Amino acid sequence: MSTHVVTSHNVVGTVSEFDTFLDAHLEQEMLRFTTAGSVDDGKSTLIGRLLHDTKSVYEDQLAAVKQSRVNRASGGHVDFSLLTDGLKAEREQGITIDVAYRYFSTSRRKFIIADTPGHEQYTRNMATGASTADVAIVLIDAKAFLKQGSLLPQSRRHTYIASLLGIPHVVAAVNKMDLAEYSQKNFETIRDEFYALAKKLGLKSVEAIPVSALEGDNVVTPSVAMPWYKGPTLLEYLETVPLRVHEVAGPMRFPVQLVLRPDANFRGFAGQVSRGILRTGDRVMALPSRRETFVRNIVTYDGPLDAAAFPQSVTVELEDEIDLSRGEMLVAAGSAATHPQVSTRFRAMVVWMHEEPLAVGRTYLAKHTTRTVRATVRAIQYKVDVSSLSEGSTDSLAMNEIGEVAFESNLPLFFDAYQANRMMGSVILIDAVTNATVGAAMLIGLADTSQAPSIRIERATLAIVSGRSDLAARVKDALDVRGERAVLIDDEFIPESSVVAVVRALQLAGVTAITARVLDAETLAALEVFAIAVVIQADELDDEALLASLEVQR
Ligand SMILES: Nc1nc2c(ncn2[C@@H]2O[C@H](COP(=O)(O)OP(=O)(O)OP(=O)(O)O)[C@@H](O)[C@H]2O)c(=O)[nH]1
Asked: What HAMAP family does its record include (predicted)?
């Protein structure tokens, strides 16, 4: 049994309860995680065990579970998956939300679980529920692995989606170790294959923990049956894994949700700051009109504010009468480089979630921030084979398939790449007739073939590689070949301010610093870099072409 102090009980939440909970606990350290597993991997049992052993479950709820249904299949053990059944029932009625949230806490941290079912629709819930997660727990059934001799395609897919969503930490909970003789060798076989996959995907923070959700080994309590395992329990891991640095940095974005006009004297725009900081007196630009004005007031229920940052919801009053309605956007004025992309043609990685395949020529509703447009599939660049991670050509994406898709919409989207900002780069695809969510899309950029792939380093002083450590590594390799002095900064957990300081120091020493962080245009300007390597669609380049396109001019 755990010795952790429970400071709040877990609740099955609706979106508004969730928001209230968030608001009330914003000050406290909070970790969001999601779980992904195939049917019967033991996801419900694991969550039930986690809640039970942290004493987060109401005693009466537990008693009811104990009394009513003891799972015979599990040999008379309490079936912890029943604790999450309430959630499933709510979801199956399907009225309010796609993903149910569960909260619990220990003395060290608060936790929010985006709970996802293990049916065929796992991908949908993973893609829609996981995009704000700090940690993805990928459940691997040790027994199924041993039978199959390798990771199941679903485990690969989950890990791939976690990498696509940019979830900073991915942990494999190697479950049912009680059915795998609690054997170190068995665990290490599974762990090594998982690590190999994670490496291929460029995941930076991965961990594997041998557990038995049913018996409670290494979930909250260290396993007696696996004394050879010296790492953290799953809870210890969740309590200590570094938290994401909030996406406050970057040029301001404020999608308008509602225009408030209570009387002739007041006109306010309500919405959520989706990126950066909004300050009274700031010069802002309205999209799509591109008209500029200043922020007169930032109003909230609790009174005016001088500034509001992501993810605060506020109402903005402007100095000038500007025509702005729901679905339009206020952004930081300033150089064009800091503005979002504005286009009716965009490319995105799509995770498809519907029985009826996504197909070239079909039109869907695309919901992006507060704006919904009609988007037609113009081309499918490729689909990903999750087993080999190779890219193949196709003209449709079946349920659970993942691919890069070019769209054309009836109205422009104002967006940033998902890699730079999750909120500004996410799109939900909806069937216009049934209103069902059919896909999740992570925006990459403009679908404009005139933007030829290139990596250009004007004077090899500094290279900023957009978001992908594997690309950063390739740029470094290319520079090494040229005999440049280059270092790669794995800056995932360094605050932005320190990245700049580190890069500066290296620049002064005449060294090329390559960072895997996306630095926004403002930060770049502050750095006064001599040269920037901009990577556009570099994934499409082979190494030869990458080398050839590195133009170093001294
Ligand atoms: N022996 C053993 N059985 C387990 C363990 N974890 C889960 N199970 C059993 O595996 C079966 C599936 O567990 P669930 O927790 O319902 O699996 P799930 O992944 O949530 O599946 P869905 O509910 O369909 O999403 C149940 O019979 C559990 O009792 C474990 O660590 N060891």
From this structure: Sulf_adenylyltr_sub1 (MF_00062)
CA–CA dist 166, 486 (Å, integer): 26
**Domain for residue 9, yes or no?**
no
Ligand 1: which residue has its CA nearest to atom 8? 42
Q: Is the CB of 154 under 6 A from ligand 1?
A: no
Pocket test for ligand 1, best of 35, 79, 81 (most atoms within 8 A of CB): 81
State if residue 213 touches ligand 1 by the CB under 6 angstroms criterion. Answer: yes
DSSP string for residues in 400-433: T-EEEEEEEEEEEEEE--TTT-TGGGEEEEE-TT
- Which pTM was predicted? 0.65
DSSP assignment string, 286-349:
EETT--EEEEEEEEETTEEESEEETT-EEEEEESS-----TT-EEEE-S-GGGSPEEEEEEEEE
8 Å CB contact between 106 and 220 = no
Last residue of a domain, one of 200, 225, 240: 240
Distance CA 385, CA 145 (A): 20
Question: ipTM above 0.95?
Answer: yes
**pLDDT 10s digits, 35-57:** 887 778 888 889 889 888 887 65
Mutate to test the pocket of ligand 1, among 44, 91, 215 (most ligand atoms within 8 A of CB): 44
- Within a domain: 321: yes
Residue nearest to atom 24 of ligand 1 (CA): 39
Q: Give φ, ψ of 426 to 5 degrees.
A: -105, 140
**What range does the domain containing 477 cover?**
458-553
CATH of the domain at 50: 3.40.50.300
- 67 and 160 in a single domain? The answer is yes
Closest-CA residue, ligand 1 atom 21, reads: 40
If asked whether residues 77 and 136 sit together in one domain, one would say yes
Is the shortest distance between the CB of 179 and ligand 1 below 6 Å? yes
